[in-house]
Amino acid sequence: MRWFSMVLVAVLVAGAHLVSPSLSYAKRVALVIGNNAYKNVSVLEKAENDAQSMGDSLKALGFSVILQKNLNRRSFNQNLQLFLSQLKAGDEALLFYAGHGVEIQGQIYLLPTDIPDATPGQESFVKSEAIGVNNVIDEIGRRKVRLSMLILDACRNNPFKTAGTRSLGRTRGLGTMSEPPEGTFILYSAGFGQSALDRLSDSDPHPNSVFTRSLLPMMQKPGLKLSDAAKQLRRNVMKMASTVSHKQIPAYYDQVIGDFYFTPPPAGDSQVVPPPHVLTQPPKNPHVTGTCGIWPQIATSATYAQVQAFLAECKSGIYSTLAKARLKELKPAGGGKLALLPPVIKKPISGDAAEIFNKAWNIYNGKNGERQDYHEAVRLYRKAAEMGHKSAKVNLGYAYEQGHGLEINFNEAARLYREAAEMGEAQGMTNLGYMYEQGNGVEKSLEQAFYWYKTAAEAGNYNGMTNLGYMYEVGRGTKKNYKQAFSWYKKAADAGTARAQNNLAYLYLYGNGTKLSNKKAMSLYQKAADQNFANSQYMIGYMHELGKGVPRNGKKAARWVMKSLKARHAFSIKEMTTNAAGWSLSFRKELQRLMSQEGYYDGSIDGKFGAGTFSAVRAVAGQ
Questions:
Q1: Is the pTM of this model over 0.85?
Q2: What is the domain partition of the chain in residue ranges?
Q3: Which of 135, 240, 265, 450 is deepest in the core (most CB within 10 A)?
C-alpha cells in the first residue's frame, strides 16, 4: 500500500498489479472453492483451509485465481460464470473444489452451502439445487481450452439422511463417471465407493485434509508430470490413510494429450539459478473480512480473554488456526472470562468526498485506530466514488478485482479503473494497464497495457514506471529496450519503490542497459529488502552464497534466505525443497541451525537436506 501525503490522498497500490515474467504456457485460470459452513447438512472443518492453501499455491504457480469460500447456490453459479468468462482458446483451466459432493444416478454433483436436506426419492430436487460436474466440464470444453482440470476433494460421506436401508445417492464416496472428453484431467480425493478423510483423527493439527496436504508439495516439484504426480499422490494418500486403518486411494481420469506440469522442468543444469526477478510477495488472505480481519493487528498484543473472544466470532479460517495456536501460549487471567469484541455499527455517511475516502482507506487497511472491515470500506468507497472522487473509483475497482467485501467482478473493476484513468488518476491508468495485460474485464491487449503504463509513468506514477520498465525489458507490447527499462526503473527506484529497486538491481547484476556492477546490484537489493521485499531478500542470500558484490558467506546467505522463507517467497520455498544440494554446506548447516533455533527443525545440523529439513522449510513458510 502507498499513499501520497503531499496531496492528502491515499491511493491504493494494487498489490496484484505487478508485472509477472512471461510464461512458456498459455494463460492459467483457476476457480478455487471451499465449503465448510453448510446450513442444512453436516458442516466440515478443513474445506476452507484446503481452498486457501490451494489458492495460494496456484497463484505462486502463475494461475489467475478466483478464490471463494462457503458459496450458496447463487454465488456458486455466479463464480462459475466469472471463471468461464475468463477462459479463451488455448488456456489452461483448473477447478478445485473442497466440500460435500454426492453421486446421483451415475452423475456427480457438488453441494453449495444452502443445499436443502433431502431424503430418498428427492433426487431430482437435489440435482436442481446442486452443481453438476458434467455440466461444468461441458461448459469449459466449449471454450476450447488446451487443458481442463478438475480436482475434487469432495468424496466425504454422503451428508443426506437415510430412510431405512435407502439413501439419496451413494452412501460413501463418489462413483465413476463416463469417459471425460479429450484434454480433460479429473482427480478425485478417493476412489470408487471410498470416503476421503477430512483429518486423520480428532487431534490431527494439520489445517488441510489428507488429500490436499499430500497434493500441495507435489505441485511445487519442477518437471513432475501431472500423470506421475497423480500416481505418486495415490501412494502417499493410501499410506497415510492406512495409519488409521482407513482405505483411501485417489482416483484420476486422464484424457490429456501431451505433458502438463504444475511447475515446468528447470532450464539447464546449473546448481543455483536466480529466480525471475519480478515476483509479488505471497498473497495475504483476501477473504477475511469484518471482525475476523483484525487478527494481524491483535496477534501479538491480545490477552487470553481477547483471543477467546476472537475465536468465538471466527471459528474457522487461516486466522482462527493462528489464534488457536496463540491461545495455547497464553495463560488465562481473571478466570479467563469471555471478553466481547465491540460490534461494528454502520453510521450514516457524512462529510465531503475526501473525508469519506480517507475514512474508507483507514477502515480498509485497519489503520489509525479503525477496525479492518472490507464491507464497510467498500460502502464508503462507493459513496465517495459516486461523489466523483477519482481515487475512490480506483480503490473500489481494486475491491471488485480482489473480492474484498464483495464478489469478484473484473468488468466492474475495469470500468472503474477506466473512469479514474480518464479523470487523470495515474494509479487508475496503471491498474487499467494491468487489466489489459491479463485480459481481465477487457480484451487482452499488450499494446493497450503498454499505452496505459506509459501514460501512468509520464503522469508520475511509480508503479506505472516499474511496469513500463518491465515491458521494455522483456519486449511485451513494444520492442525490447534495456536502456528504456533502466531509465524507468531508476526513476521509480530513486523514489523508493521496492519493486523498481529490485528490478534495477537485476539489470546491474547482468549488465543489461547499463554497466555490470555487482556492488550496485547488492545496494539496490538491500534497499528493497529493507522494505521487506521478499525477492530481494532471497537475492541477497544468493549473492552472499556466490560472493557477488560481497565476500562469499554461507552463514549470511542462510540468514537472508530464512527471511525470504518467512515471507513465503515461492521461489525460495521451491529452491530449498528441490535444489538445496546446489548450495554450500556452510549455508545448509546454518539454515538448519536457524530453523532449529526457532523451533522448526529438530534433526541433525549436518547440512543434509531430507524429509525433516524440507518439512521444516515449509513450516517456516507457513505451509
A1: no
A2: 28-254, 532-623
A3: 450
Q: Is the CB of residue 101 less than 8 Å from the CB of residue 111?
A: yes
For 160-163, the CB contacts below 8 A with 24+ separation are 160/41, 160/102, 160/117, 160/118, 160/119, 160/126, 161/117, 161/118, 161/119, 162/120, 163/119, 163/120
Cα atoms in the Cβ-side hemisphere of radius 13 Å centred on 392: 23
**What does the mean pLDDT of the chain come to?**
79
What is the largest distance, in Å, between two alpha-carbon atoms of the chain? Answer: 80
Torsion of CA 402, 407, 410, 413, to 10 degrees: -70
Write the pLDDT tens digit of every residue in 442-501: 998 999 999 999 999 998 888 899 999 999 988 988 999 999 999 999 999 998 888 999
Which residue type is seen at 63?
A: F
Whole-Å CA distances, 351 to 183, 356, 357, 360, 384: 56, 6, 10, 12, 10
Q: What is the DSSP string of 84-127?
A: HHT--TT-EEEEEEES-EEEETTEEEEPPTTPPP--TT-HHHHH
Q: Find the helix packing angle between 410-422 and 426-438, rounded to 10°.
A: 140
Q: Which CATH class is domain 28-254?
A: alpha beta
**Highest mean pLDDT pick, 199-213, 231-245, 282-296:** 231-245
Pairing of strands 92-98, 147-153: parallel
pLDDT top residue among 193 and 406: 406
Distance CA 308, CA 481 (A): 57
